[in-house]
Every structure is written in structure tokens, then in C-alpha cells.
Write a structure and sequence with these properties.
With about 400 residues, the protein is of the alpha+beta class. The protein contains eleven helices and 17 strands. It starts with a strand and ends with a helix.
């Protein structure tokens, strides 16, 4: 079974990841994971926390001599800021004078603070925000780095770009070049269009000056996927549903679309569906357009997977919105926690990780194998079958 779990709080000692289902024989190093963690920390509009944390992973189980063993892989990412918070975040007894002084009772509109406090019967909402914080995504990116390494063994590539910050939007290219994605990786906003990037940065500067925050839209693509990942046979096996759920689980994400997405609802069917052709040279069926985003009936169709996610503005504002103190019931201003102005570029990297984890799970389900070599044999046999269909 392919699955992962994370544990940890935003200002706790560390984040811990356990990833099950990784086949034996996959080469993985801490540097492979650290590279992805570094990408997550970048982006114009990030807050002061990124000046403190320099995320590094420690592989503590499931790997020996540089290769996975087939047993669960365990990872640890330490929080450097823990030293400044260890009294307030103590796992045993917090000094009473600190606990009383630092209690959070004014929920932030748009955050999990109030709903989480009611659900778990917390009177101090730090018990909610520490886990609901987007800092948890560092663990997802670490797990996603291993998923990405597995997919690379099958020449599957996952890339992302930011297509909107606030109202500033670019139209995604249908077939972006390698040069375009090189520019994306070099861009502080993961945007490959320099003019739009300049406008986005100016808008973030304006938001910072006003004590505001900004959201946006990012796109993730998965290239070279085999036909037949996922299933139409049950609702919870449809790969598009699994991908949508994975992306919606990222803090701040409020909408997900594939291919044409919501735009398809405004067109006639002939303008939406991709015609099917066959190439004798490549021995495969193909579609000259990819409006479906690589997915039909919850199953990959061999075209690139294209999925976009919309992120709302971050709830923590420099000028907090009105709220209610849950102790006094009086109208007041929401509590303030150190936060980003805009985190869409980082969310795109998290989106890559979540897509990688879902696709890797579908590959493990489809091709099985206790070792990487066995999984590759099954994959090659399946591809021979597909080419003869």
C-alpha cells in the first residue's frame, strides 16, 4: 500500500514523515530531498520565517547504503525556530506565566482557528493553528521528493508554473518549451512571462504596503504518463478525483480544475472533446489537442496531465479583520501571526509534490512489485501490450 503520514507543529521540534509502499532498490539521498525543500522556501512575497528556516531532511529509516529497503521510509525535518518556542510549545508542562500571557483567543477570519477550537474543545487556539499552518507542507514536499525520484525511473516528469497572482494572469502555453520552464525555475514567482512577473511583483509590493495578502493560481503538469492509471470502476479510484482531493488538501486551496476546467462548461461539445488519431510511426493513439488535461473517465489517456489550483489570499493580515474574543465574546481584532504576503509560488512546489505522490501511488497500484526492478519489468510488459493494442 502506498501512503504517507505527517506529524508535527509549525513551531514544534520537528516534522516527521512516514512513507509506505516505496519499492526496494530506489536510490535516494538527503540531497535529493533537500533540493525540493529549498524550492518550497523560495518565492517573492514570503515572510520572515523563510529567513530563519533552512530546511534539511534526515533520513532515519527505510534506507541503507543509499537505497530503499522496501520497508517504510521515515524522514525528519527539524524546525530551527524551535529554540525560540520550546517553552511555549513544550510537550509536557508549559510555565503558567507563559501559558497565560500567550493564549490566543481571537480567531482569524479565513483560518481554521475557530472551527478547530470548537471541534477539539480548545480554549487556546494555538492548539489549532500550529497544526493547521501551511508549515506542515514541508513534510509533504519531503515525501513528494521520494515520489518524484520513483517517477523519474519511468521518465515521468512533473513541472509547475504560476499563471496568476491576484488579477494579473497569463494564459498557459499549450506546449511550453524547455527554455520556458528554465525561466520558470529562475523566476522568483515561478512565472515564465517577464512582463506579467513584473506586474505580479508590483502588486505584491502594494499588498505589503497595505497590510494585505494575495492569492493566485498555479498549474502542474505531469509528462510521459502511461495510459491506464486510475480507474472508472469506483468513485474513489478515479485518478482525477484523487488528484483534486490531494490539491484541495493544501492549505489555502479553494478550487481545482483539469484541462479546460470550468471554461468547458461554456462551450459546445465539439469545442471541448479531443479527437482521437493513431500514429503508425509511434505505434500509439494520440489527441492533437489536450482539452481534457490528460484524463478521461478518471483514467490517464497518454497525454500530459494538466491540473490547476486556485489559492485564496493568506488569512493572516497586517491589519487584522474584525473578530470575536472567544473568552469575553467581545468584538475585537483577530490575532496576528507572522505570515507571508503571497505564497503561491511555494504552493506550486507543494502542488508538484502532491501530484507526484498521487501519481506514484497509481503507478504502484498498477505495476506492483516489491522491488524497483520487478516494478520496471511489469511496466515494460504493459507498455509492450499498449503498443500492440
Amino acid at each position: 500500500m502506498w501512503r504517507f503520514l505527517t506529524a508535527g507543529e509549525s513551531h514544534g521540534r520537528q516534522f516527521t514523515v512516514i512513507l509506505e509502499g516505496v519499492p526496494a532498490g530506489l536510490k535516494i539521498t538527503a540531497q535529493d530531498i533537500d533540493r525540493e525543500l529549498s524550492r518550497r522556501q523560495q518565492g517573492y512575497g514570503r515572510g520572515e520565517r523563510m529567513l530563519i528556516e533552512r530546511d534539511r531532511v534526515e533520513i532515519v529509516a527505510g534506507v541503507r547504503d543509499g537505497y530503499t529497503l522496501g520497508s517504510p521510509v521515515a524522514l525528519v525535518i527539524a524546525n530551527r525556530d524551535w529554540e525560540n518556542w520550546k517553552a511555549l510549545m513544550a510537550t509536557e508542562q508549559i510555565p503558567s506565566q507563559i501559558k497565560e500571557r500567550e493564549i490566543l483567543t481571537r480567531p482569524r477570519p479565513g483560518h481554521a482557528d475557530l472551527a478547530g477550537a470548537i471541534k477539539f474543545q480548545h480554549r487556546d487556539m494555538r492548539n489549532v493553528l500550529e497544526r493547521a499552518s501551511a508549515r506542515e507542507t514541508v513534510a509533504r514536499v519531503a515525501a513528494g521528493a521520494i515520489a518524484r525520484k520513483l517517477l523519474q525511473e519511468f521518465d515521468i516528469r512533473i513541472i509547475s508554473q504560476v499563471v496568476a497572482i491576484g488579477p494579473v494572469r497569463v494564459e498557459p502555453q499549450e506546449n511550453p518549451s524547455e527554455e520556458f520552464f528554465r525561466r520558470v525555475e529562475e523566476s522568483p514567482l515561478r512565472c515564465g512571462e517577464p512582463e506579467a512577473e513584473e506586474k505580479m511583483m508590483a502588486l505584491i509590493d502594494t499588498a505589503r504596503g497595505k497590510g494585505e495578502t494575495l492569492g493566485g493560481i498555479f498549474e502542474v503538469r505531469a509528462m510521459n504518463l502511461p495510459v491506464g492509471l486510475g480507474s472508472y470502476s469506483q468513485w474513489d479510484l478515479r485518478l482525477d478525483g484523487l488528484l483534486a482531493g490531494a490539491l484541495m488538501s493544501i492549505p489555502g486551496i479553494k478550487g481545482v480544475e483539469m484541462g479546460m476546467g470550468f471554461a468547458a462548461a461554456a462551450e459546445f461539445g465539439s469545442q471541448v472533446h479531443d479527437i482521437i488519431l493513431y500514429s503508425p510511426e509511434k505505434r500509439r493513439y494520440y489527441r492533437p489537442t489536450n482539452r481534457a488535461g490528460g484524463m478521461e473517465g478518471g483514467v490517464t489517456n497518454g497525454e500530459p496531465l494538466i491540473v490547476r489550483a486556485a489559492m485564496k489570499p493568506i488569512p493572516t493580515l497586517g491589519h487584522p479583520l474584525p473578530s470575536v474574543d472567544i473568552v469575553t465574546r467581545e468584538v475585537t481584532r483577530a490575532d496576528y501571526e507572522r505570515a507571508d504576503i503571497c505564497a503561491v509560488p511555494a504552493a506550486a512546489v507543494v502542488g508538484e509534490a502532491m501530484v507526484a505522490l498521487v501519481i506514484a501511488g497509481a503507478m504502484r497500484e498498477k505495476f506492483g512489485g516489491d522491488s524497483l526492478e520487478e516494478m520496471k519489468r511489469n511496466y515494460r510488459a504493459y507498455q509492450d501490450y499498449v503498443n500492440s493494442f
